[in-house]
Write a sequence for this structure.
């Protein structure tokens, strides 16, 4: 009745449809500020944001139905557009993985003989034969135990090895299976000393780690020997010593642990009477027959198992995909990003770190520190007054002035979510913002002047002259310059400039005089108001004379004024630091710009406070085996910054979806596990489950060369078969390159064997028979 998304479908029928999401985001707002015409502008209710509380069983409202149709339309677009993407993705996977097969020594190798895995899927078991090798199916096997074979479960050598491992585990319960003398020393040293976990910028290590290393190096040899004696690693597992096809009972550690746990807790509860030894023998026989056979084309199976479900993802909507509060990349775009692009700059990088249990009260403060603060978030309003300075000054000193007054929000409106104070905001305005704003204003003025020159059509004529002495050329050049200066001052050019100023919405001289008189009147009124305000401020300042250092205030004002020749004056709120005022001065000509819109645009781009690489931070409660715990989730990545808070965060469980960042910080094996988890999460959002063995082979192929390699044209250049490269794409490019380099193809890859008309060396073609003719 249901598809593979049974839980989702049941919930939508009998529960609710939930949050409708389009590409991982809530429905966008129209220009009117509404999501639909039936809602109020900027309505913050869940229904207006696309949350469907209705269910299919009782019906949904018209607005909810429209939201649902939006998601359905996206599904149709995905079917039309993303089907080609998923098809190309599957083709890329197949062309790269086509030569990977299981060999007779149980290793998984490419067609050139390079080892990708020592055991297929890390345990060597065939996926199609492992259906009954899970604890859920063990009771069924015991019901059919009579069909099992007789004899011992293990070979003598294997049994002896397992006995040795069991004995070691029993006598070393107190220690980790894999440790070293230095790690044991580090544990004892940390317990005896109060170490400083703050990270040093030069080395990237904490002070405590540096102190521990120095203490270990200074330790006497006799004391080191005491730790080295206890440095006894666990014996290698049986799969690392014996081959499954040579010895009976060679099974993976994880599978043997499942058998032991089931025998200890569940076997006695079964209705069938089977001994623990008989149960072990039954499971060993079943597992031995489930090993992947040599010649199996596991690479093609992996490509098919990843590529085929990706085509299904284009048909589904994003009802329950991702999280509404976090911006995440989903579906085919995320698969393409991981598998085909492998870029070090992904669209939505994120980190997730658990908070230590005894530090959860510090989580909110840490979240505020990681949140980026934009100037527009703390800005209440900006007033811009423009006036001209033309009276009682020389012609060269005439200027156009702008008085900018920035009013900031009161701290009570943002202190609970942003890590800034009025003092820090004001210091940022004085030291950084005004310089950036002046740069933007000057660029705007220069762009306007350049556009004016282009639109005027006044181009200097190019004179074609005969070759003459250099001195004569210099004289002519001087004459040309003088002529051009005279021409610039002619009446016709003045009229042309005035006409152009009219086209650019500049005032004529008469209008400018009228405006000047009006602005002078307004300026006088403003001055009166300012005098009144200054009188009030002066009265308040008189009461604060004892607490405010006048010299510091004057020095602060002078610092701002002297920072640029365009700053004529500066004032600020000495008492509460809730406003500041800049008076900017520019030349009279070509400086009339719309400063209000420019400041509004600039305020949305200006960052007052941020941690480099991190844009936003959220707190999330996660259920774990130990109970609910708090995690900190960030949009953006800065692992070194996270290391500074080792006393608050559990750094041993740090996770990031940026594969390159993990590879650079923790190594390629850690990146391997991130690839597996990320691909698994992409499919899990659609209710699709892909076997771990396929994912592990895929991740191992992408990382077995020591770097994170994608499935694309550039990555296939490392392939040993030039014919396989040509069969992928850009045939002529690879053909020319192979010809110039004199490349050699040994015809071992499937593509090259097909080109040469040979049988493919996988499956039944993986071996050859020698027939005795005589």
């Amino acid at each position: 009745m249901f598809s593979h998304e049974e839980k989702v479908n049941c919930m939508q029928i009998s529960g609710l449809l939930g949050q409708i999401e389009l590409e991982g985001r809530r429905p966008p707002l129209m220009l009117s500020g509404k999501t639909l015409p039936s809602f109020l502008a900027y309505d913050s209710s869940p229904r207006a944001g696309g949350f469907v509380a209705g269910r299919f069983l009782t019906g949904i409202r018209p607005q909810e139905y429209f939201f649902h149709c939006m998601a359905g339309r996206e599904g149709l677009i995905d079917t039309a557009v993303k089907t080609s993407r998923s098809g190309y993705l599957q083709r890329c996977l197949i062309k790269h993985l086509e030569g990977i097969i299981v060999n007779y020594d149980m290793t998984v190798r490419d067609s050139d003989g390079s080892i990708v895995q020592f055991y297929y899927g890390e345990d060597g078991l065939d996926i199609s034969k492992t259906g009954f090798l899970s604890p859920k199916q063990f009771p069924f096997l015991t019901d059919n135990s009579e069909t099992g074979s007789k004899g011992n479960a293990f070979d003598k050598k294997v049994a002896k090895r397992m006995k040795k491992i069991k004995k070691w585990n029993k006598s070393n319960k107190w220690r980790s299976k894999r440790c070293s003398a230095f790690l044991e020393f580090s544990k004892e040293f940390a317990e005896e000393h109060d170490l400083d976990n703050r990270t040093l910028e030069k080395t990237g290590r904490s002070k405590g780690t540096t102190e521990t290393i120095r203490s270990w190096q200074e330790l006497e040899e006799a004391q080191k020997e005491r730790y080295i004696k206890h440095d006894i690693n666990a014996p290698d597992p049986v799969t690392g010593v014996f081959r499954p096809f040579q010895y009976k009972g060679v099974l993976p550690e994880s599978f043997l642990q499942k058998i032991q746990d089931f025998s200890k807790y569940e076997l006695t509860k079964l209705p069938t009477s089977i001994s623990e030894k008989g149960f072990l023998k039954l499971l060993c026989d079943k597992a031995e027959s489930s090993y992947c056979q040599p010649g199996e084309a596991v690479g093609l199976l992996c490509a098919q198992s990843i590529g085929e479900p990706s085509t299904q993802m284009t048909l589904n909507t994003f009802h329950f995909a991702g999280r509404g509060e976090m911006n995440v990349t989903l579906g085919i775009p995320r698969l393409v990003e991981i598998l085909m692009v492998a870029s070090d700059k992904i669209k939505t990088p994120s980190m997730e770190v658990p908070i230590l249990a005894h530090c959860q009260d510090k989580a909110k403060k840490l979240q505020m520190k990681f949140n980026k603060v934009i100037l527009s978030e703390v800005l209440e309003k900006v007033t811009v007054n423009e006036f001209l300075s033309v009276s009682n000054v020389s012609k060269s000193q005439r200027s156009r002035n702008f008085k900018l007054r920035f009013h900031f929000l009161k701290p009570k409106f943002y202190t609970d979510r942003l890590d800034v104070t009025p003092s820090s905001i004001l210091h940022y305005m004085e030291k950084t913002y005004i310089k950036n704003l002046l740069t933007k204003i000057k660029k705007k003025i220069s762009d306007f002047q350049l556009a004016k020159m282009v639109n005027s059509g006044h181009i200097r004529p190019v004179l074609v002259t005969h070759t003459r002495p250099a001195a004569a050329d210099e004289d002519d050049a001087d004459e040309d310059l003088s002529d051009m200066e005279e021409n610039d001052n002619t009446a016709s050019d003045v009229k042309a400039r005035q006409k152009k100023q009219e086209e650019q919405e500049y005032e004529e001289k008469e209008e400018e005089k009228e405006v000047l008189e009006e602005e002078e009147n307004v300026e006088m009124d403003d001055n009166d108001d300012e005098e009144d305000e200054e009188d009030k401020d002066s009265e308040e300042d008189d009461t604060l004379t004892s607490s405010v250092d006048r010299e510091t205030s004057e020095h602060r004002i002078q610092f701002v004024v002297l920072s640029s020749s365009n700053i004529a004056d500066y004032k600020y709120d000495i008492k509460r630091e809730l406003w500041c005022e800049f008076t900017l001065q520019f030349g009279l000509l070509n400086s009339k710009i719309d400063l209000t819109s420019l400041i509004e645009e600039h305020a949305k781009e200006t960052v007052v406070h941020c941690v480099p690489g991190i844009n936003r931070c959220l707190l999330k409660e996660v259920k774990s085996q130990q109970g609910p715990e708090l995690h900190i989730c960030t949009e953006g990545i800065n692992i070194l910054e996270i290391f500074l808070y080792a006393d608050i965060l559990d750094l041993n469980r740090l996770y990031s979806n940026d594969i390159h960042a993990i590879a650079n910080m923790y190594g390629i094996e850690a990146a391997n596990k991130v690839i597996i988890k990320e691909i698994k999460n992409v499919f899990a959002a659609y209710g699709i489950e892909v076997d771990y063995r396929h994912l592990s082979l895929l991740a191992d192929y992408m990382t077995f060369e020591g770097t994170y390699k994608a499935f694309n044209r550039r990555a296939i250049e490392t392939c040993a078969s030039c014919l396989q490269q040509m069969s992928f794409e850009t045939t002529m490019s690879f053909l020319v390159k192979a010809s110039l380099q004199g490349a050699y193809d040994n015809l071992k890859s499937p593509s090259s064997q097909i080109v040469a008309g040979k049988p493919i060396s996988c499956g039944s073609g993986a071996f050859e028979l020698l027939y005795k003719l005589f």
In short: The longest strand covers residues 379-389.
